[in-house]
Design goal:
Blueprint (H helix, E strand, L loop, with lengths): L1 H7 L4 H18 L7 H16 L7 H17 L6 H14 L4 H22 L5 H17 L6 H17 L3 H14 L6 E4 L2 E4 L1 H15 L12 H12 L8 H16 L14 H5 L3 H24 L6 H18 L5 H16 L5 H15 L3 H9 L7
Helix pairs in contact: 2-3, 2-4, 3-4, 4-6, 5-6, 5-7, 6-7, 6-8, 7-8, 8-9, 9-11, 10-12, 12-14, 12-15, 15-16, 17-18
């Protein structure tokens, strides 16, 4: 009480804010252990609230960032041990108190996700009615908090992270909701982002994010009330509608990874699973109708890539054309059934496409050819393919 009264002696707000900043800097620097002392928690909550309220639309970004780091440091130091409900209550109170600081909201969502995973570890994945209800409360916290974060890239990352946490805790409907929210948000991603006062393309982030998203979709089961692979279809619609940079082939790179995903989905048993989550391999059991639906989507994606390759016939884009054709060829080696005549012919055409346009990477093609020779010793279909490819030499 005396501590808070002492702070109230600073009648000028700027002086009071500076004093609070010094207090939090000292706490973050010298408080090496976690605490749940109510006097410390309540006192520093007041101090952090003062810092939070000092932030306005006129505050410099660096100052906002510094304030966010101080408050985040406080949040991470509060630990109620095994009393997870009290811990969640603290996070709820912190969200209400620091709603205008993006770094703090991001931290809170991450902390709540960690709380969910700690709960899962304690019960060894076998949730009781009580722990399942607690998980739903944590999931609801994240789902409510994420939309209030201003940075779209943080929102996307947290939607995917929270979706993974929800599925890991068998909250399948909630996990679906996170993934659908992420897919819907993708169209709002700006084409450029500002890094160190410089404008840069957002496509590298988007490409990395989509690859991460696709790898997780392998273990996500279809919703019983939705169509087959409804999340994959929804994601493909967004990829098609997104305003990609026409000077890059990022969209096609995503499509190649979609082919890899769909190829993995046709396996009798998937490469990896999430514990206590029945993926589509367990749901459909390699059903012919499911496989046929997957093949339809693959055919559509292949048509899109081939159509794009045709548009790169100009003098300035031939190098991109050769590179994409070779990437597609290599993807077929790993994903396609080369014993199928259509797939084999597609691979041959892509190889010729890459080799004959005059802008190919001769050394890379030579290394690829050598790789095929080694693979052909153990895979007859690769040996057959190799016999149809013209010999290449290093430039």
């Amino acid at each position: 009480n005396n501590f808070l009264r002492f702070l109230d002696l600073f009648q000028k707000e700027s002086v009071k804010t500076d004093a609070c900043r010094l207090i939090m800097e000292a706490f973050c620097r010298y408080q090496t252990e976690s605490t749940n002392d109510p006097v410390i928690v309540n006192g520093l909550m007041f101090v952090c609230k003062t810092l939070h309220d000092s932030v306005s639309s006129l505050t410099l970004d660096d100052e906002k960032r510094a304030t966010g780091q101080l408050v985040t440091g406080f949040v991470r130091k509060i630990d109620y041990g095994r009393d997870f409900e009290q811990q969640l209550n603290f996070f709820v109170e912190a969200r209400a108190s620091f709603c205008n600081l993006d770094p703090v909201l991001v931290c809170l969502v991450q902390c709540v996700n960690l709380l969910s995973m700690k709960t899962r570890t304690i019960v060894k994945g076998n949730h009781t009615r009580k722990t399942a209800a607690f998980i739903r409360a944590c999931v609801a916290f994240s789902f409510i908090t994420i939309p209030s974060i201003q940075d779209i890239f943080n929102r996307l990352t947290l939607y995917l992270e929270s979706g993974k946490v929800a599925f890991a805790n068998q909250a399948l409907s909630q996990g679906d909701a996170f993934l659908k929210a992420a897919i819907s948000l993708l169209l709002e991603v700006p084409k450029t982002i500002e890094i160190d006062s410089k404008s840069k393309s957002s496509e590298p982030f988007l490409l990395s994010y989509l690859n991460n998203f696709l790898s997780f979709l392998l273990v996500v089961p279809d919703h019983p009330d939705q169509g087959v692979l409804y999340l994959v279809r929804g994601l493909l619609n967004v990829i098609e509608d997104y305003p990609w940079d026409s000077q890059t082939d990022a969209k096609m790179k995503v499509y190649l990874n979609v082919i890899s995903l769909l190829s993995a989905m046709t396996q009798e048993s998937y490469f990896y699973h999430m514990e206590k989550v029945v993926s589509n391999d367990g749901m459909y059991g390699n059903d012919k109708k499911f496989i046929a639906e997957v093949h339809k989507i693959i055919s559509t994606v292949i048509e899109e890539i081939l159509r794009h390759l045709q548009t790169l016939s100009g003098t300035e884009t031939k190098k991109r054309q050769a590179s994409l054709a070779l990437d597609f060829f290599n993807r077929l080696l790993g994903c396609a059934d080369l014993a199928n005549e259509d797939m084999c012919m597609l691979a041959v055409n892509l190889w010729n496409f890459a080799q004959n346009n005059g802008q190919n990477d001769a050394k890379l093609m030579a290394r690829t050819y050598e790789f095929l020779k080694k693979k052909g010793k153990s895979r007859p279909e690769v040996s057959t393919l190799l016999g149809r490819l013209p010999l290449v030499s290093r430039a």
